[in-house]
Amino acid sequence: xxxxxxxxxxxxxxxxxxxxxxxxxxxxxxxxxxxxxxxxxxxxxxxxxxxxxxxxxxxxxxxxxxxxxxxxxxxxxxxxxxxxxxxxxxxxxxxxxxxxxxxxxxxxxxxxxxxxxxxxxxxxxxxxxxxxxxxxxxxxxxxxxxxxxxxxxxxxxxxxxxxxxxxxxxxxxxxxxxxxxxxxxxxxxxxxxxxxxxxxxxxxxxxxxxxxxxxxxxxxxxxxxxxxxxxxxxxxxxxxxxxxxxxxxxxxxxxxxxxxxxxxxxxxxxxxxxxxxxxxxxxxxxxxxxxxxxxxxxxxxxxxxxxxxxxxxxxxxxxxxxxxxxxxxxxxxxxxxxxxxxxxxxxxxxxxxxxxxxxxxxxxxxxxxxxxxxxxxxxxxxxxxxxxxxxxxxxxxxxxxxxxxxxxxxxxxxxxxxxxxxxxxxxxxxxxxxxxxxxxxxxxxxxxxxxxxxxxxxxxxxxxxxxxxxxxxxxxxxxxxxxxxxxxxxxxxxxxxxxxxxxxxxxxxxxxxxxxxxxxxx
Length: 522
Fold this sequence. Notes:
Layout: H1 17-21, H2 31-38, H3 81-88, E1 94-99, H4 105-111, E2 114-117, E3 137-142, H5 145-156, E4 168-172, H6 173-177, H7 183-198, E5 203-205, H8 207-214, H9 233-261, H10 267-273, H11 281-299, E6 303-308, H12 325-341, E7 344-353, E8 356-364, H13 369-392, H14 397-418, H15 422-435, H16 440-452, H17 456-469, H18 474-486, H19 490-503, H20 508-520
Parallel strand pairs: 4-5, 4-6
Antiparallel strand pairs: 1-3, 2-3, 2-7, 6-8, 7-8
Helix pairs in contact: 5-13, 7-13, 9-11, 9-12, 14-15, 15-16, 16-17, 16-18, 17-18, 18-19, 19-20
Protein name: Amidase domain-containing protein
Domain Amidase: 5-373
TPR repeats: 406-439, 474-507
C-alpha cells in the first residue's frame, strides 16, 4: 500500500520527510486495508509516493524514485509510483494506490500493469490523507485480471452475479490523436479482440465534439496559457477545470501546514501552488456533475469508452519533458475524463513500443465497476493474444498501409450505409475487401447493403464468406438467414437464426424471426 493510507502504529509519511517528522503514528488502520486483510490478504509494507502526492511523474527527492521494472531509464509515473513498481517487479500480487488526477492509471501504464480506478466515492476514503476530496479515489494494481477482480469484489462488497457482456465499444479517435503512439498500434488490438469475442464492431466517436455539445460551461475554461492546442478545446478545458479543482482542494487541505512548517517542497510544486488566479470552484463542480451525466448518457449500463491511458511512452528520468506544460496538459487531458466524471477506468497493458510499456484504458459509467471488472476478466487473455500476434507479425509496410486503408474504406462505407446510399456502401466495402480480404466484418457489412438492394444471392454469399473467416460473427448469421428467407430457403433460414441464438441467446431479432417462420411453415 502507499504512504497515504493509515496503518495503526505507523506514521503516514505522505511522501515527505517533514510531514513524517511533524505527525504522530496513526491509532487506526484504514478500513480499506482492514477489509483486504480480513479477506485473506497479507500487508507486507508501505510504498513510496510523489511528494505530498502532488505529481504524476513518480519522482521523490526525499525517498528516491522507485525504479520502473519495465523501463529502468524511465519514470514510473505517479503519484502511486511505489505500488505500481512493486506489482510490476513481482514483489506482490497487488497493491493499493490513490488516484486524484491519474495517480493510479498513469503509473500502471508506465510500468505495464493493470491499474483500476473505481467510481468516485464507491470505496471508503476513511483513513487516507486527502489531496482533493472531489477527485480522490482509492485504486489498485495487479498483473493478473482475476486478482484485480477479486480485490474489487472485496472493496466494492460485490455479491455473486452473472457476467454481463458489453454491447457497445466506443473508440475516441480524437483522444488517440493526443497520443504519440501510432493509433493503429493501440486500437487494432481492441478492435480485433471485440470482433473475436463478441462478433461486434467498435463505434468511432469524436469525444471533443460530444463534450462540447453536452457541457456548455466548458467554454469558461478554454482560455488561458494552458490551452496550447486549439484542436481539442473541450478536452483541454475539462483538464483545466480538473487542475483548478485539484489545486484549490489541495490548498484547502494542506496550505496551513505548508505555511506553518515551511517544508522544502519540490520546485514544481511550489511553482504550481504559487500561480495567480482565483478558481471558480462552483463552476468546476458544475463541470464535474455535467461530465458525469454526459458520459453516463453515452455509455449507459453496457458501454465501454476506449482511450489511451497516457499521451505516450514514459519520459526519461530527469527529462525536460517532465516540466513541459504540453506534456502535462496532454497526459492530464486524458486522465481528466474519469477524474471529472467520477467514472471507473482500467488501464490495460498492450506490450511495448520502442521498448517502453504502452496501454489503453476502458471507461465505464459511474457505478458500473462490477461490469468493468468483469469485462477485463473476459477480454484480457484475448487482448494479450492479439498483442502477441501483432508483435510477432512481420507485416510489410505495404500490407500495413493496405490494412489501414481498408479500415478507412469500411468507415466510409458505414457512413454511406447510414445515409441510405446502398450502392455507394457496397462499392466502399468492396474496396475494403480488395485491400484486405481477411476481415469478416467487411463481408458482413457488404451483405447488409446487398440486402437493402434486394440482392439476396450476393448477400448470402458474403455472409458465408464472413462466417468462414469468423464462425462467431452473429450479424452474418442473421443477415444470411434474412437473405435465405427472402429466397424461399426457409429451413436454412431457421438454421441460421437458430445458430445466432446459440451464440447470443438474448438476440431478439433471431428469436422473432424463428417464431415467424415456424408459424408460417410449421
